[in-house]
């Protein structure tokens, strides 16, 4: 059986688009586990706004040893304004998303949140100058149709609370484009550190309005959530350094089967047959896009991720 070291070595030898796909899949798994931690903390009486604050605070604590080792020079940046925009927009997305995770079945929330790649693919083509050809557009749209299979509009009642993941998705799509822009000039760890450094004080403001003393069990869940958040965002950010945003974002769809399994095991949530049919459609589109990108990379060996013109306002 191959050792973990040999598996990592093999992953590093993959074409850059496949490395990006692998990292995004790892991030999807970690985000799914983090969502379960959020729901468990809410069952201990924590408000979603408090959960957002503790998630950011504990994630920042996990980042401090890295900052101490690298020194404050690691925070050197000429794009502080971009980091601030990312934090502010990310906070709105986080509050909507955490609330949705708490009040909805996780698989339903994740399925609705899958509109992020569709918005971000269009944004990547318009604002980042990425070349998105017809086949990638088609595969991305097919993935979105998989989400519609899961939701079955017209057959299942759509409630106001279902707008929360969609609102979160709109803001997340903006942060995705900002991360793509930042990944071209900033170190991945610096991007993650700035996010937590800025989000911690920002998220404290709404948390104060609903504050109540957390239990020890709730705090332990939040430590776990913070650790998952750091690891997930590192993988997420590094994925963007390996491949175009429109190529790797479909692998975020892997969150759905991960979340469905966790939701069933921990909370007794049972996605129906249509959830799995939709997930299969989504996964098929994601695999096609990865294979397509690998072929393009072989045809253009001099192409490097991030070489496109950056058109995002800073």
TrEMBL record:
The keyword rRNA-binding belongs to this UniProt entry's keyword annotation: no
TM ranges: 21-41, 53-72, 84-104, 110-129, 136-155, 161-179, 191-212, 218-236, 248-267, 273-290
One Pfam family cited in the UniProt record for this chain: EamA
Keyword terms of this UniProt record: Membrane, Transmembrane, Transmembrane helix
Membrane topology: Multi-pass membrane protein
InterPro entries linked: EamA_dom, EmrE-like
Listed GO CC annotations: membrane
UniProt superkingdom: Bacteria
Subcellular location: Membrane
Residue ranges of domain EamA in the record: 20-151, 165-289
Family the UniProt entry places it in: Belongs to the drug/metabolite transporter (DMT) superfamily. 10 TMS drug/metabolite exporter (DME) (TC 2.A.7.3) family.
PANTHER family: ACYL-MALONYL CONDENSING ENZYME-RELATED, SOLUTE CARRIER FAMILY 35 MEMBER G1
Protein's UniProt name: DMT family transporter
Species annotation: Pelagibius litoralis
């Amino acid at each position: 059986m191959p050792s973990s070291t040999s598996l990592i070595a093999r992953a590093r030898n993959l074409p850059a688009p496949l490395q990006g796909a692998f990292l995004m899949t790892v991030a999807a798994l970690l985000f799914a586990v983090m969502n379960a931690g959020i729901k468990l903390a809410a069952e201990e009486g924590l408000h979603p706004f408090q959960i957002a604050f503790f998630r950011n605070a504990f994630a920042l604590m996990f980042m401090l040893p890295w900052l101490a080792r690298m020194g404050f020079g690691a925070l050197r940046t000429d794009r502080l304004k971009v980091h601030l925009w990312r934090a502010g927009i990310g906070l709105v997305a986080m509050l909507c998303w955490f609330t949705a995770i708490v009040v909805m079945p996780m698989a339903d929330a994740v399925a609705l949140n899958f509109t992020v790649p569709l918005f971000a693919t269009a944004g990547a083509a318009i604002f980042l100058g990425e070349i998105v050809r017809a086949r990638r557009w088609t595969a991305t749209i097919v993935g979105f149709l998989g989400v519609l299979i899961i939701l079955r509009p017209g057959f299942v009642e759509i409630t106001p609370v279902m707008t929360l993941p969609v609102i979160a998705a709109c803001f997340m799509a903006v942060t995705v484009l900002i991360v793509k822009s930042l990944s071209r000039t900033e170190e991945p760890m610096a991007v993650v550190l700035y996010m937590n450094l800025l989000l911690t004080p920002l998220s404290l403001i709404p948390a104060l309005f609903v504050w109540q003393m957390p239990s020890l069990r709730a705090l332990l869940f939040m430590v776990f959530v913070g650790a998952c958040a750091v690891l997930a965002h590192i993988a997420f950010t590094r994925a963007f350094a390996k491949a175009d945003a429109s190529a790797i974002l479909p692998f975020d769809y892997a969150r759905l089967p991960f979340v469905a399994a966790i939701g069933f095991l921990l909370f007794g949530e049972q996605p129906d047959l249509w959830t799995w049919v939709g997930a299969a459609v989504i996964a098929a589109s994601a695999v096609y896009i990865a294979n397509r990108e690998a072929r393009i990379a072989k045809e253009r060996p001099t192409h490097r991720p991030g070489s496109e013109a950056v058109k995002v306002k800073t």
